[in-house]
Amino acid sequence: MKALLETGYGILNKLADAMRSPFLLLVRLYWGWQFMQTGWGKLHNLPKVIDFFTSLGLPMPAVMAPAIACVELGGGLLLALGLGSRLIGLILTVNMLMAYITADREAFFSFLSDPDKFAAAAPFTFLFASLIALTCGSGRLALDTLIGSWWKKQSGSSPASA
Description:
Blueprint: H1 2-43, H2 46-55, H3 61-81, H4 85-103, H5 105-108, H6 115-120, H7 123-136, H8 143-155
């Protein structure tokens, strides 16, 4: 029985490992597109976004609105392509944490007391996708991997060790 469980667990691990890169690709493509759409929407409705940022008491809303829109649009594109995924994941994570803190403070601070409220807030899925990119990287099906392979062939080392 022990050998059967070990074999089954080994097979499960191999299958899960084989699904890692396709899963990360799907997360990157879907949430990259979602970030791009939100950034594009903000850019095309800047007066409303500026008014919203003003109502939140954010400093320099006329500067912050297009900056955040560009972060989301450009970050979404880079996320979808798998280019600089961990750095983009960090930037988008900070962006989503700030969205929680400024626009949905009550939900953010209900993380422990009312997790359903935290998870139902608009920034939650964007934050979760950003954290996946930050912690897991882009996977093998990404420009990061292609560039890393090219770099290794050219220099005999990986970009991280150079």
